[in-house]
Write a structure and sequence with these properties.
The chain is α/β, with parallel strands linked by helices and 481 residues long. The chain folds into 3 domains: 16-182, GTPase HflX, N-terminal domain (Rossmann fold); 209-373, P-loop containing nucleotide triphosphate hydrolases (Rossmann fold), CATH 3.40.50; 378-432, Alpha-Beta Plaits, CATH 3.30.70. Helix content is 40%, strand content 17%. The protein contains 15 helices and 13 strands. Helix 12 links the parallel strand 9 (326-331) and strand 10. The protein is elongated and about 90 Å long. It starts with 15 loop residues before the first strand and ends in a 49-residue tail after the last helix. Mean pLDDT is 83; it is low at 149-160 and 440-481. The chain binds guanosine-5'-triphosphate (GTP) and magnesium ion. Magnesium ion binds at residues 224-225, 244-245.
């Protein structure tokens, strides 16, 4: 295939969508109504209108049509009666189930599944070259086993578009065959690898710089981008829809303790996130895997937030990021009453409670990030000569200064340093040996300044009124990068 699948604009008249869900009895965390409500939001995000839903309880899917034969008949009737344009299954359909169902409902009606819907939304929201290529890769891999079905399907009407079909549509579709799709997959992979090389170089440089990296991770629509903007003044696109953000944005975040860390906002997760997408977004998700700390953002006003967090944890497992220390950030507390906030605080004392929208709990969160950063770092005392002004500046930017004072030979500092910074400071640490012990009672340094002497490091009360020092200090050691 010589052309890329291009996302198209939403049809002016919203398509009428019928949702179909099957309860397979394995839904402890995701009861069917919750999963169907989410599917409805996905459909709306993709520009269609939900006109009804059909559900069935089954021990296991029926091989030919996923739903039973009686339900299939009911589906055909409902499609006719409610003038349905598209039927959206909450579960993944095999290519043959999809084409059997299409045959049953008639050629004017599309049958799509959750994965096709999510891929379509991603296609519409991708803006950067890398984002588009990643989505295209996932879409091509979805299309490949379905080519035959899509072929016959599209034979009937070439111009059909609308939700769930944008990426399969286009004048070249009729000429598409597996070999061409495979060629395009190989080409997209190569282009992505080339882009990934650049990212890896940048990532290596960032690691060598010793800057502590923080990644925002969470369920889609939890408020990650709002938090990113509130903390760093970035201008990431925020919208009350699913998968508003697809690309990674990294900004510097200054902490009160005097140093800066980097903060990265990236694509959100969802339950049953298609594995093709997780694989295709490998490079974007590397920003998460390479972080020193993950802020797991959840929408505490959503009754499903705990199930959402466990979906996020599952996806973190898929990208090998479970050993990175995580801080749970319970966002949107402005939507909860005082009692609910107090109950959350009691039940999750380790969590940061905040409202990114109303900028509540942010100072507390910044302080927590500093605490987590310091906990993964080593304490180094170094003597930096006066002519090493650049290094002094770097130390102030990247390390937490515990104390410092000027001595005859230069600046004597004790800092919390990352492994990379500690390595840069090694020669100066040797120079500091034996110069003076900080706690010598007859220390000659009269101008010694200890952060906190001015009261600035007294335990603070965050905007929510609880002690910011009161944080859970247990953590897993940061992954060796
Ligand atoms: N009430 C309230 N709304 C919030 C808060 N934080 C974010 N929102 C709203 O939640 C919606 C989603 O916010 P985003 O910041 O785009 O969420 P996200 O996690 O980046 O979502 P995706 O990029 O789509 O995965 C927007 O309408 C925000 O205004 C909050 O603290 N309180
Ligand atoms: Mg976002």
């Amino acid at each position: 295939m010589s052309r890329r699948f291009k996302p198209q604009s939403t049809a002016p008249v919203p398509e009428r969508a019928l949702l179909v869900g099957v309860d397979l009895g394995e839904r402890d965390e995701w009861p069917q109504d919750r999963s169907m409500a989410e599917l409805g939001r996905l459909v709306e995000t993709d520009g269609a209108e939900v006109v009804g839903e059909l559900t069935q309880r089954l021990a296991k899917p029926v091989p030919k049509t996923f739903i039973g034969s009686g339900k299939t008949e009911e589906l055909v009737e409902r499609v006719r009666a409610e003038k349905v344009d598209v039927v959206v299954f909450d579960e993944d359909l095999t290519p043959s189930q999809q084409s059997n169902l299409e045959r049953a409902v008639g050629k004017d009606v599309k049958i799509i599944d959750r994965t096709a819907l999510i891929l379509d939304i991603f296609g519409r929201h991708a803006t950067t070259t890398e984002g588009r290529l990643q989505v295209e890769l996932a879409q091509l891999r979805y299309v490949l086993p379905r080519l035959r079905g899509m072929w016959s399907h599209l034979m009937g009407e070439q111009t059909r578009g609308g939700i769930g079909s944008r990426f399969g549509q286009g004048e070249s579709q009729l000429e598409v065959d597996r070999r061409m799709v495979r060629n395009r997959i190989a080409q997209v992979r190569r282009e992505l690898e080339r882009l990934d090389e650049r990212r890896k170089t940048q990532s290596k440089a960032r690691w060598e710089s010793g800057v502590f990296r923080v990644a925002l991770v969470g369920y889609t629509n939890a408020g990650k981008s709002t938090l990113m903007n509130a903390l760093t003044g970035a201008d990431v696109y925020v919208k009350d829809e699913l998968f508003a953000t697809l690309d990674a944005t990294t900004r510097s975040l200054s902490l009160e303790e005097g140093r800066s860390v980097t903060l990265t906002d990236t694509v959100g997760f969802i339950q049953k996130l298609p594995t093709t997408l997780v694989e295709a977004f490998r490079s974007t998700l590397a920003e998460v895997r390479e972080a020193n700390l993950i802020l797991c953002v959840a929408d505490a006003s959503d009754e499903a937030w705990e199930a959402q967090v466990s979906s996020v944890t599952t996806t973190l497992g898929e990208i090998d990021a479970l050993d990175i220390p995580r801080v749970l950030c319970l966002n949107k507390i402005d939507r909860l009453g005082e009692d609910a906030v107090a109950a959350l605080r009691l039940k999750h004392p380790e969590a940061q409670l905040l409202s990114a929208l109303e900028r509540r709990g942010l100072a507390d969160l910044r302080h927590r990030i500093a605490t987590e950063a310091a906990a993964t770092e080593q304490t180094v005392t170094a003597l930096i000569p006066f002519d090493e002004g650049r290094l002094v500046k770097l130390v102030h930017e990247r390390c937490q200064v515990i104390r410092e004072s000027y001595v005859q030979e230069g600046l004597l500092v004790t800092v919390k340093a990352s492994e990379a910074m500690a390595r840069s400071l090694e020669p100066y640490a040797k120079a500091a040996e034996g110069v003076v012990a900080w706690d010598e009672p007859d220390s000659p340094f009269s101008d010694e300044k200890r952060p906190g002497d001015d009261g600035s490091h007294e335990p603070e009360h965050g905007e929510d009124g609880h002690l910011v020092e009161d944080v859970d200090d247990k953590r897993v050691p940061t992954e060796e990068l």
